[in-house]
Amino acid sequence: MLITENFAVFLVATLTLCAIPGPDMLYVIARSIGQGRKAGIVSAFGFSVGLLVHTCGAALGFSALLMSSPLAYSIVKYVGAAYLIFLGINMLLSKKSISSLGKLKQASLKRIFSQAIITNVLNPKIALFFLAFLPQFVNMSEGAVGWQILTLGIIFNIIGTLWNIIVAFMAGFAGDWLKNRPKFSRFQQWFTGGILISLGVHIALSQIS
């Protein structure tokens, strides 16, 4: 059902876009350095669920509806930005040493997973991106446009998730190295919190383009 001659272009574009550092990747890096590669991988899977929500939204037309309402877009954008900033400030104010976060309980990983989902779903820029990007590779003459968009979105999601897992492993090694150096413990905490706050501010100040 996909246009075969355009599918290779889609794959190249997807690989290129996934390799460019964005909010999701930076969040995975921050979590991996701050709490270990397991936390980064859990974040990657959380973002995967969020992307699936955006994919279904694009396929069903919800993304178009969101983009057509400035008020709805603004509400989702600012709620998502505020959530990221809240997480970042909470991290900065925490008195718990990052070096002690390696022994995470399962509940903590679940919270990380849910935070990643919420962060991704509340980023309307992703909805706009999916709405603008995926339809470019749809074969209108074949019909079933929604299913085509869903298929392309899932492929994009799989590639992006695998890339984020690789990033989590790489950042996790850096975190392990820092974790064995107590003087860097506080730096890890500030790095993670700073990244989250920066992402929140970026989303809040961003405009539809």
From TrEMBL:
One family name in Pfam for this protein: LysE
GO terms, molecular function: amino acid transmembrane transporter activity
Keyword Glycosyltransferase attributed: no
Membrane spanning residue stretches: 6-29, 41-65, 71-93, 113-134, 154-178, 190-208
GO cellular component: plasma membrane
Topology within the bilayer: Multi-pass membrane protein
Subcellular location: Cell membrane
Alphabetized UniProt keyword annotations: Cell membrane, Membrane, Transmembrane, Transmembrane helix
Protein name: LysE family translocator
